[in-house]
Amino acid sequence: MDYAGQRERLGKAVRERGLEAFVVVNVERSDRPNLRYLTGFTGSFGILLVGERTVFATDSRYTEQAGKETGLPVEEVKGRWLPWLGERLKSLGLRRVGIGAHRTSLFVYQELSRLAAGVELVPERGLVEDLRRVKGEDEIGRISAAAELTDAGLRWAIEHLQPGRTEREVALDLEVWYRKNGAEGVAFELIVASGPGSAMPHYRPGNRRITRGDVVLFDVGVQLDGYCSDLTRVVAVGDPGPTVREVYELVLAANRAGLAAVRAGAAGKDVDAAAREVIAKAGYGDRFGHGLGHGVGLEVHEAPAVGPASEDTLAPGNVVTIEPGVYLPGKFGVRIEDLVVVTEGGNRVLSRFPKDELLIR
User: Fold this and answer.
1) Alpha-carbon gap, residue 222 to 216, rounded angstroms
2) pLDDT digits (tens, 9 = 90+) for 69-78
3) At a CB cut-off of 8 Å and minimum separation 6, what does 342 contact?
4) Which one of 31, 55, 80, 331 has the minimum C-beta count within 10 Å?
5) Fold adopted by 3-132
6) Which CATH architecture best describes the domain 137-360?
7) Do the beta carbons of residue 224 and residue 266 sit within 8 Å?
8) pLDDT tens digits for 172-219?
9) Rounded to 5 degrees, what are φ and ψ at 91?
Protein backbone atom coordinates (compact mmCIF):
# COMPACT_ATOMS: atom_id res chain seq x y z
CA MET A 1 0.00 0.00 0.00
CA ASP A 2 1.27 3.47 -0.89
CA TYR A 3 0.62 5.16 2.45
CA ALA A 4 3.08 7.97 1.73
CA GLY A 5 1.32 8.70 -1.55
CA GLN A 6 -2.04 8.77 0.19
CA ARG A 7 -0.67 11.24 2.76
CA GLU A 8 0.65 13.38 -0.11
CA ARG A 9 -2.85 13.48 -1.64
CA LEU A 10 -4.23 14.57 1.71
CA GLY A 11 -1.51 17.21 2.06
CA LYS A 12 -2.44 18.64 -1.33
CA ALA A 13 -6.11 18.80 -0.34
CA VAL A 14 -5.14 20.48 2.93
CA ARG A 15 -3.16 23.20 1.14
CA GLU A 16 -5.97 23.77 -1.35
CA ARG A 17 -8.24 24.59 1.59
CA GLY A 18 -5.83 27.15 3.00
CA LEU A 19 -4.87 24.98 5.95
CA GLU A 20 -1.40 24.37 7.31
CA ALA A 21 -2.06 20.85 8.55
CA PHE A 22 -4.75 18.23 9.18
CA VAL A 23 -4.96 16.12 12.32
CA VAL A 24 -6.39 12.57 12.49
CA VAL A 25 -7.09 11.31 16.00
CA ASN A 26 -7.89 7.66 16.65
CA VAL A 27 -8.81 7.09 20.29
CA GLU A 28 -10.22 3.63 20.93
CA ARG A 29 -11.03 3.24 17.24
CA SER A 30 -12.84 6.57 16.84
CA ASP A 31 -11.11 7.26 13.51
CA ARG A 32 -9.36 3.96 12.87
CA PRO A 33 -10.27 3.67 9.14
CA ASN A 34 -8.76 7.05 8.21
CA LEU A 35 -5.63 6.47 10.27
CA ARG A 36 -5.13 3.03 8.74
CA TYR A 37 -5.65 4.45 5.26
CA LEU A 38 -2.93 7.05 5.78
CA THR A 39 -0.39 5.02 7.75
CA GLY A 40 -1.21 1.30 7.90
CA PHE A 41 -1.40 1.50 11.70
CA THR A 42 -3.76 -1.08 13.24
CA GLY A 43 -3.66 -0.10 16.93
CA SER A 44 -6.46 1.51 18.89
CA PHE A 45 -4.69 4.79 19.72
CA GLY A 46 -2.78 7.02 17.35
CA ILE A 47 -2.47 10.65 16.29
CA LEU A 48 -1.37 11.76 12.83
CA LEU A 49 -0.61 15.31 11.77
CA VAL A 50 -0.21 15.84 8.02
CA GLY A 51 1.33 19.13 6.92
CA GLU A 52 4.74 20.55 6.13
CA ARG A 53 5.99 18.07 8.70
CA THR A 54 4.34 14.69 9.34
CA VAL A 55 3.94 13.81 13.01
CA PHE A 56 2.80 10.40 14.24
CA ALA A 57 2.28 9.71 17.92
CA THR A 58 0.97 6.93 20.12
CA ASP A 59 1.45 5.72 23.67
CA SER A 60 3.82 3.13 25.11
CA ARG A 61 1.50 0.24 24.23
CA TYR A 62 2.03 0.79 20.50
CA THR A 63 5.33 2.60 19.93
CA GLU A 64 7.17 -0.49 18.65
CA GLN A 65 4.19 -1.67 16.60
CA ALA A 66 3.68 1.78 15.09
CA GLY A 67 7.30 2.03 14.02
CA LYS A 68 7.05 -1.27 12.16
CA GLU A 69 3.65 -0.62 10.58
CA THR A 70 3.96 3.02 9.56
CA GLY A 71 7.63 3.47 8.71
CA LEU A 72 7.36 6.90 10.33
CA PRO A 73 9.26 8.37 13.30
CA VAL A 74 7.06 7.77 16.32
CA GLU A 75 6.59 10.20 19.17
CA GLU A 76 5.40 8.81 22.49
CA VAL A 77 2.43 10.40 24.21
CA LYS A 78 2.94 10.47 27.96
CA GLY A 79 0.07 11.39 30.21
CA ARG A 80 -3.25 12.67 28.88
CA TRP A 81 -3.37 12.87 25.11
CA LEU A 82 -5.50 16.00 24.67
CA PRO A 83 -3.11 18.31 26.57
CA TRP A 84 -0.21 16.65 24.75
CA LEU A 85 -1.78 17.34 21.35
CA GLY A 86 -2.69 20.91 22.27
CA GLU A 87 0.89 21.66 23.28
CA ARG A 88 2.27 19.88 20.17
CA LEU A 89 0.12 21.97 17.81
CA LYS A 90 1.29 25.16 19.50
CA SER A 91 4.95 24.09 19.49
CA LEU A 92 4.82 23.62 15.71
CA GLY A 93 3.68 27.23 15.30
CA LEU A 94 0.53 26.25 13.42
CA ARG A 95 -2.31 28.71 12.96
CA ARG A 96 -5.01 26.87 10.98
CA VAL A 97 -5.41 23.10 11.37
CA GLY A 98 -8.13 20.96 9.84
CA ILE A 99 -9.86 18.30 11.91
CA GLY A 100 -12.39 15.70 10.78
CA ALA A 101 -15.98 16.80 11.30
CA HIS A 102 -17.50 13.33 10.96
CA ARG A 103 -15.82 11.56 13.85
CA THR A 104 -14.53 14.25 16.20
CA SER A 105 -16.77 14.65 19.23
CA LEU A 106 -17.91 18.09 20.32
CA PHE A 107 -16.07 17.58 23.61
CA VAL A 108 -12.74 16.86 21.86
CA TYR A 109 -13.19 19.82 19.53
CA GLN A 110 -13.95 22.23 22.36
CA GLU A 111 -11.21 20.93 24.66
CA LEU A 112 -8.58 20.96 21.94
CA SER A 113 -9.58 24.49 20.94
CA ARG A 114 -9.05 25.55 24.55
CA LEU A 115 -5.78 23.65 25.04
CA ALA A 116 -4.36 24.83 21.71
CA ALA A 117 -5.29 28.47 22.20
CA GLY A 118 -4.13 30.50 19.22
CA VAL A 119 -4.56 27.61 16.78
CA GLU A 120 -7.75 27.76 14.72
CA LEU A 121 -9.31 24.30 14.40
CA VAL A 122 -11.27 24.07 11.15
CA PRO A 123 -13.85 21.24 10.96
CA GLU A 124 -13.52 19.55 7.56
CA ARG A 125 -16.25 17.25 6.31
CA GLY A 126 -15.09 14.14 4.48
CA LEU A 127 -11.57 15.31 3.64
CA VAL A 128 -9.98 11.88 4.07
CA GLU A 129 -13.16 9.95 3.30
CA ASP A 130 -13.36 11.58 -0.13
CA LEU A 131 -9.84 10.39 -0.91
CA ARG A 132 -10.85 6.87 0.11
CA ARG A 133 -13.65 6.71 -2.48
CA VAL A 134 -11.30 5.81 -5.33
CA LYS A 135 -9.42 2.61 -4.58
CA GLY A 136 -5.96 1.82 -5.83
CA GLU A 137 -5.01 -1.58 -7.24
CA ASP A 138 -3.68 -2.75 -3.86
CA GLU A 139 -6.96 -1.86 -2.21
CA ILE A 140 -9.04 -3.53 -4.91
CA GLY A 141 -6.86 -6.61 -4.58
CA ARG A 142 -7.58 -6.79 -0.85
CA ILE A 143 -11.33 -6.29 -1.36
CA SER A 144 -11.30 -8.95 -4.06
CA ALA A 145 -9.55 -11.41 -1.73
CA ALA A 146 -12.12 -10.64 0.97
CA ALA A 147 -14.92 -11.26 -1.52
CA GLU A 148 -13.37 -14.57 -2.54
CA LEU A 149 -13.16 -15.70 1.08
CA THR A 150 -16.76 -14.58 1.64
CA ASP A 151 -17.95 -16.65 -1.32
CA ALA A 152 -16.09 -19.73 -0.06
CA GLY A 153 -17.50 -19.44 3.44
CA LEU A 154 -21.05 -19.05 2.20
CA ARG A 155 -20.62 -22.12 0.02
CA TRP A 156 -19.49 -24.06 3.10
CA ALA A 157 -22.41 -22.77 5.19
CA ILE A 158 -25.02 -23.71 2.61
CA GLU A 159 -23.53 -27.18 2.20
CA HIS A 160 -24.01 -27.68 5.95
CA LEU A 161 -27.43 -26.03 6.17
CA GLN A 162 -29.96 -28.39 7.76
CA PRO A 163 -33.51 -28.05 9.05
CA GLY A 164 -33.65 -27.86 12.83
CA ARG A 165 -30.61 -25.65 13.29
CA THR A 166 -31.13 -22.16 14.68
CA GLU A 167 -30.20 -19.04 12.76
CA ARG A 168 -27.77 -18.07 15.52
CA GLU A 169 -25.99 -21.43 15.32
CA VAL A 170 -25.56 -21.12 11.55
CA ALA A 171 -24.26 -17.53 11.84
CA LEU A 172 -21.81 -18.43 14.60
CA ASP A 173 -20.46 -21.47 12.74
CA LEU A 174 -19.93 -19.35 9.64
CA GLU A 175 -18.12 -16.64 11.58
CA VAL A 176 -15.81 -19.25 13.12
CA TRP A 177 -15.15 -20.70 9.65
CA TYR A 178 -14.19 -17.28 8.34
CA ARG A 179 -11.79 -16.65 11.21
CA LYS A 180 -10.23 -20.10 10.89
CA ASN A 181 -9.67 -19.48 7.20
CA GLY A 182 -7.87 -16.16 7.43
CA ALA A 183 -10.36 -13.37 8.12
CA GLU A 184 -9.41 -10.71 10.67
CA GLY A 185 -13.07 -10.74 11.58
CA VAL A 186 -16.48 -10.32 10.06
CA ALA A 187 -17.26 -6.99 8.40
CA PHE A 188 -20.54 -6.70 10.31
CA GLU A 189 -22.83 -8.93 12.35
CA LEU A 190 -23.63 -11.72 9.92
CA ILE A 191 -27.28 -11.95 8.91
CA VAL A 192 -28.88 -15.38 8.71
CA ALA A 193 -32.62 -14.75 8.36
CA SER A 194 -35.09 -17.57 7.89
CA GLY A 195 -38.77 -17.58 7.01
CA PRO A 196 -40.53 -14.32 8.01
CA GLY A 197 -37.22 -12.94 9.32
CA SER A 198 -35.92 -12.71 5.75
CA ALA A 199 -38.44 -9.90 5.17
CA MET A 200 -36.52 -7.66 7.61
CA PRO A 201 -33.52 -6.14 5.75
CA HIS A 202 -31.32 -5.78 8.86
CA TYR A 203 -32.57 -8.80 10.76
CA ARG A 204 -30.48 -10.19 13.62
CA PRO A 205 -30.20 -13.99 13.76
CA GLY A 206 -32.05 -15.51 16.69
CA ASN A 207 -33.21 -18.82 18.09
CA ARG A 208 -35.71 -19.57 15.34
CA ARG A 209 -35.12 -23.04 13.94
CA ILE A 210 -34.88 -23.37 10.18
CA THR A 211 -37.68 -25.53 8.78
CA ARG A 212 -38.65 -27.14 5.50
CA GLY A 213 -40.08 -24.62 3.05
CA ASP A 214 -38.14 -21.71 4.54
CA VAL A 215 -36.37 -19.04 2.59
CA VAL A 216 -33.01 -18.37 4.27
CA LEU A 217 -31.30 -15.07 3.49
CA PHE A 218 -27.54 -14.80 4.09
CA ASP A 219 -26.00 -11.30 4.21
CA VAL A 220 -22.34 -11.88 5.01
CA GLY A 221 -18.93 -10.27 4.73
CA VAL A 222 -15.43 -10.42 6.15
CA GLN A 223 -12.56 -8.09 6.90
CA LEU A 224 -9.26 -9.17 5.38
CA ASP A 225 -6.07 -7.09 5.51
CA GLY A 226 -8.21 -4.21 6.72
CA TYR A 227 -10.69 -4.27 3.82
CA CYS A 228 -14.28 -5.46 3.79
CA SER A 229 -16.60 -7.48 1.59
CA ASP A 230 -20.38 -7.72 1.41
CA LEU A 231 -22.53 -10.43 -0.19
CA THR A 232 -26.18 -11.46 -0.03
CA ARG A 233 -27.70 -14.65 -1.37
CA VAL A 234 -30.95 -16.52 -0.72
CA VAL A 235 -31.43 -20.29 -0.44
CA ALA A 236 -34.63 -22.27 -0.05
CA VAL A 237 -34.81 -25.29 2.24
CA GLY A 238 -37.01 -27.60 0.22
CA ASP A 239 -39.57 -26.42 -2.34
CA PRO A 240 -40.47 -22.80 -1.50
CA GLY A 241 -43.45 -22.55 -3.83
CA PRO A 242 -44.17 -20.43 -6.94
CA THR A 243 -44.42 -17.02 -5.24
CA VAL A 244 -40.88 -17.23 -3.89
CA ARG A 245 -39.58 -18.30 -7.29
CA GLU A 246 -41.40 -15.40 -8.96
CA VAL A 247 -40.02 -12.84 -6.54
CA TYR A 248 -36.54 -14.30 -6.83
CA GLU A 249 -36.57 -13.94 -10.62
CA LEU A 250 -37.79 -10.37 -10.26
CA VAL A 251 -35.02 -9.40 -7.83
CA LEU A 252 -32.45 -11.13 -10.03
CA ALA A 253 -33.65 -9.05 -13.02
CA ALA A 254 -33.36 -5.89 -10.92
CA ASN A 255 -29.86 -6.90 -9.80
CA ARG A 256 -28.82 -7.36 -13.43
CA ALA A 257 -30.33 -4.02 -14.44
CA GLY A 258 -28.45 -2.29 -11.63
CA LEU A 259 -25.18 -3.92 -12.61
CA ALA A 260 -25.68 -2.94 -16.25
CA ALA A 261 -26.04 0.71 -15.18
CA VAL A 262 -22.78 0.79 -13.19
CA ARG A 263 -20.15 2.75 -15.11
CA ALA A 264 -17.86 5.73 -14.66
CA GLY A 265 -19.84 8.97 -14.86
CA ALA A 266 -23.16 7.42 -13.85
CA ALA A 267 -25.08 9.18 -11.09
CA GLY A 268 -25.72 7.03 -8.04
CA LYS A 269 -29.43 7.88 -8.16
CA ASP A 270 -29.65 6.81 -11.82
CA VAL A 271 -28.08 3.43 -11.10
CA ASP A 272 -30.59 3.00 -8.29
CA ALA A 273 -33.44 3.96 -10.63
CA ALA A 274 -32.41 1.36 -13.20
CA ALA A 275 -32.95 -1.46 -10.71
CA ARG A 276 -35.87 0.13 -8.87
CA GLU A 277 -37.87 0.55 -12.08
CA VAL A 278 -37.80 -3.21 -12.69
CA ILE A 279 -39.30 -3.88 -9.28
CA ALA A 280 -41.83 -1.04 -9.53
CA LYS A 281 -43.13 -2.21 -12.91
CA ALA A 282 -43.84 -5.63 -11.41
CA GLY A 283 -46.00 -4.02 -8.72
CA TYR A 284 -43.57 -4.41 -5.82
CA GLY A 285 -42.21 -0.86 -5.69
CA ASP A 286 -43.43 -0.29 -2.14
CA ARG A 287 -41.66 -3.46 -1.00
CA PHE A 288 -38.17 -2.14 -1.85
CA GLY A 289 -37.52 0.58 0.67
CA HIS A 290 -33.74 0.88 1.01
CA GLY A 291 -31.12 2.25 -1.36
CA LEU A 292 -29.61 0.03 -4.01
CA GLY A 293 -26.08 0.08 -2.65
CA HIS A 294 -23.13 1.74 -0.95
CA GLY A 295 -19.39 2.00 -1.15
CA VAL A 296 -17.19 -0.66 0.46
CA GLY A 297 -13.56 -0.41 1.56
CA LEU A 298 -11.95 -0.06 4.96
CA GLU A 299 -15.55 0.21 6.18
CA VAL A 300 -18.44 -1.87 4.94
CA HIS A 301 -20.56 1.27 4.49
CA GLU A 302 -18.77 4.26 2.99
CA ALA A 303 -19.00 6.60 0.00
CA PRO A 304 -20.20 6.67 -2.70
CA ALA A 305 -23.91 6.10 -2.14
CA VAL A 306 -26.12 4.36 -4.70
CA GLY A 307 -29.68 5.30 -3.84
CA PRO A 308 -32.59 7.59 -4.73
CA ALA A 309 -31.17 10.45 -2.62
CA SER A 310 -27.55 9.99 -3.72
CA GLU A 311 -25.65 13.07 -4.88
CA ASP A 312 -22.61 11.00 -5.89
CA THR A 313 -21.25 10.23 -9.35
CA LEU A 314 -19.42 6.96 -9.90
CA ALA A 315 -15.75 7.06 -10.85
CA PRO A 316 -13.18 4.42 -11.85
CA GLY A 317 -11.87 2.75 -8.71
CA ASN A 318 -15.10 3.03 -6.74
CA VAL A 319 -16.21 -0.24 -5.18
CA VAL A 320 -19.97 -0.44 -4.54
CA THR A 321 -22.68 -2.95 -3.77
CA ILE A 322 -25.73 -3.58 -5.93
CA GLU A 323 -28.40 -5.11 -3.70
CA PRO A 324 -32.05 -4.81 -4.71
CA GLY A 325 -34.63 -6.58 -2.59
CA VAL A 326 -38.31 -7.32 -2.22
CA TYR A 327 -39.69 -7.87 1.28
CA LEU A 328 -43.14 -9.26 2.10
CA PRO A 329 -43.72 -8.75 5.85
CA GLY A 330 -44.70 -11.88 7.74
CA LYS A 331 -43.85 -14.06 4.75
CA PHE A 332 -40.35 -13.82 3.25
CA GLY A 333 -37.83 -11.53 1.60
CA VAL A 334 -35.33 -11.81 -1.23
CA ARG A 335 -32.19 -9.71 -1.67
CA ILE A 336 -29.35 -10.37 -4.12
CA GLU A 337 -26.18 -8.39 -3.50
CA ASP A 338 -22.97 -8.21 -5.51
CA LEU A 339 -19.74 -6.30 -4.94
CA VAL A 340 -18.65 -4.31 -8.02
CA VAL A 341 -15.60 -2.31 -9.08
CA VAL A 342 -16.27 0.66 -11.36
CA THR A 343 -13.85 0.60 -14.31
CA GLU A 344 -13.10 2.93 -17.22
CA GLY A 345 -15.18 0.74 -19.54
CA GLY A 346 -17.98 -0.28 -17.18
CA ASN A 347 -17.55 -2.53 -14.17
CA ARG A 348 -16.11 -5.76 -12.82
CA VAL A 349 -18.14 -7.94 -10.47
CA LEU A 350 -16.10 -9.35 -7.57
CA SER A 351 -18.86 -11.59 -6.18
CA ARG A 352 -18.66 -15.03 -7.78
CA PHE A 353 -21.22 -16.94 -5.76
CA PRO A 354 -23.95 -18.40 -8.04
CA LYS A 355 -27.21 -16.51 -8.35
CA ASP A 356 -28.66 -17.40 -11.77
CA GLU A 357 -31.33 -19.54 -10.16
CA LEU A 358 -32.74 -19.93 -6.67
CA LEU A 359 -30.58 -22.31 -4.68
CA ILE A 360 -32.53 -25.16 -3.07
CA ARG A 361 -31.22 -27.39 -0.31
Assistant:
1) 19
2) 999 999 999 9
3) 262, 263, 264, 314, 315, 316, 317, 318, 319, 320
4) 80
5) Creatine Amidinohydrolase; Chain A, domain 1 (3.40.350)
6) Alpha-Beta Complex (3.90)
7) no
8) 999 999 999 999 999 999 999 999 999 999 999 999 999 999 999 999
9) -65, -25
